[in-house]
Structure formats: C-alpha cells, structure tokens
Amino acid sequence: MRIDIITVLPELLKSPFEASILKRAIEADLVEVHFHNLRDYTTDNYKTIDDYQFGGGAGMVMLIEPIDKCISKLQSQRHYDEVIYMTPDGETLNQGIANTLSLKENIIILCGHYKGVDQRVRDMFVTKEISIGDYVLSGGELGAAVLCDAVIRLIPGVLGNETSALTDSFQDNLLAPPIYTRPRDYNGHKVPEVLFSGNFPKIEKWREEQAYKRTKERRPDLLDE
Question: Based on CB atoms within 10 Å of each CB, which residue in 128, 149, 156, 211 is the most buried?
C-alpha cells in the first residue's frame, strides 16, 4: 500500500510514523508513506496557500490551485483508489472503514486547515470524506495520523500475530472482552478460573459472553447496529 498525505505541516505528521508498529511496517516495505508540503505547489514568493472567503466571514480558506497541482501530479504518476479529505463533517471513522481502506493499493489523504478547503476541491477531487469525531481540531494532520494507524495495522504482516487485529474491539460490533496476564492473584484480585481450564471452546464462549456484556453496558448502540 502507498499513502500520500498532503499537508501544510509535514513536520507535525512525521513523528507517529517514526516509532512502533508504523515504523516497522514502513521498514518492512509493507506500506509507503509520503508527505507532500502544499507550499511546494504555490507560485508566489510568499508560498500562499489560503485566502479570505468570498461573501465575508471569519476564517481563511485553503486555495484550490496548489491542491489541484499536487493531486494532479500524483494522479499522473499512478492510479489512486481514494482521495480522502479529513474534515469534521465527513463520515465518522469506524472499524469497517479502516477494514475497507486496508485493502486499497494507493490512497491520497488531504489534510484540511484553517476554515477548510475551497468547496471545488471537494467537488472535483475528493472521493471520500472522513472525520475522527464530533469535534474540531486545528488541522487534519492528527486525524490523518489516526486514520493511517487504524488502516496500516490491518495490513497482513504488520502485526506479529495475524489474528490479533481480528479480535480487536468493533470488528464484530462488540467491544473486546477483559484480558489478563501474570500474576494469577494480585493482592486478592484473581484471574477468572475458566482461563486456566485448557478448554478452549469454553474459554471462547466465556470471552464472547464477556464481550457482549461489556458492549451492552458501555456501547449498547453497537448491538443495535
């Protein structure tokens, strides 16, 4: 998979990809992540990427021309399955979206900034709009990092255990069940005996029951779905 991220703050984005699972995925050539500074596609000496909005109103708007130049250049080099715009009014990111995107070959992620992008960018280039929640950030960079983490960890070979991602919360519209490790008894707080039974069908049934119970208590809306 190749991910191209268009941003006005590439330095803000690079850190998450230089550690842990994302770093290992890149080093193993399981994914390519490229950052494109939008100011490199401007034509004036001030490297202007925003301007006042027509009709008045507070907040600056990202110009269409540098975005057009960047996206057009990338699309001239290869086919992209999706051009994603990170925006508060997009579809809320969930595990299903992450699963679908993990199967794509090439995607572009456009990070919004200021008041957002000229609407014509969304009309002409964007194929999918994604939000990471009902709140507003200073820009789309942190949202893009969240999206990439959610997607990249699903690529085969990225996680050490191939079944690990399949048992994550939300994969089957259930939260993950309680998990335990050593010691077996910590100050009187004991691990459930069923986990030591060696009866794996019984253990799986217990986990399913606990997952359902936890989901019903904390996120009953998932059961409605």
Answer: 211
Q: What are phi and psi of 194, to 5 degrees?
A: -60, -30
How far is 17 from 37, CA to CA, in rounded Å? 16
Q: Taking Cα atoms as reference points, which of 36, 40, 129 lies closest to residue 75? A: 36
- Exposed, middle or buried by CB within 10 Å (0-12, 13-18, 19+), for 61? buried
Render pLDDT for 86-95 as a digit per residue (tens, 0 to 9): 999 999 999 9
Say what the pTM is. Answer: 0.89
Let me know: does 147 contact 93? Beta carbons within 8 Å: yes
Rounded Cα–Cα distance for residues 99 and 166 (Å): 10
Nearest 5°: the CA angle 154, 83, 43 is: 130
Sheet holding 106-111, edge to edge: 32-37, 2-7, 106-111, 82-92, 128-131
- How close are the terminal C-alpha atoms of the chain, in Å? 30
Indicate whether 160 pLDDT > 80: no
Give the E-state strand segments of the chain in sequence order. Answer: 2-7, 32-37, 50-52, 60-62, 82-92, 106-111, 128-131, 185-186, 189-190
The 3-state DSSP class for residue 113 equals strand
The count of other CB atoms within 10 Å of the CB of residue 84 is 27
